[in-house]
Design goal:
66% helix; Group 1 truncated hemoglobin; Globin-like; metal-binding; mainly alpha; 0% strand; 124 residues; oxygen binding; single chain
Length: 124
């Protein structure tokens, strides 16, 4: 068995502290990304968005933290997010994972999860 089969995704991402670092790097990337920065710069409460993203990632990766936010469809309804914007956000997430020394297999697993969620985000 390899490491990805024996260690949870939550653990491979660094548990709460590691996921928090990743999310903060993701948000920095989003704010610097010309394709999506205006969406994040205009956020009413970026700290709350970060908190919800940390909870979402932790809970979705098998961590003990509960996600207290709204579901993805409700959160993104009316935002008219394009496929290009979604891909830009994914690129930012993958860059943050790489910056935090997340191994390629784990980055691939996160990519698969993100692709599985895109129907709940794009043009809802």
């Amino acid at each position: 068995m390899n490491r990805t089969e024996t260690v949870s995704l939550y653990d491979r991402l660094g548990r709460f502290d590691g996921i928090t670092r990743i999310v903060h790097d993701v948000m920095e990337n989003h704010l610097a990304n010309p394709a999506i920065r205006t969406r994040f710069a205009a956020a009413r409460d970026l700290d709350h968005a970060k908190k919800m993203a940390v909870e979402f990632f932790c809970a979705g990766c098998g961590g003990p933290e509960a996600y207290t936010g709204r579901d993805l469809v409700l959160t993104h309804t009316g935002m008219n997010i394009s496929e290009q914007e979604y891909m830009a956000a994914m690129d930012d997430i993958l860059a943050a994972l790489e910056k935090n020394d997340i191994d390629p297999a784990t980055r691939g697993e996160v990519t698969a999860v993100l692709y599985s969620l895109k129907g709940q985000v794009i043009r809802v």
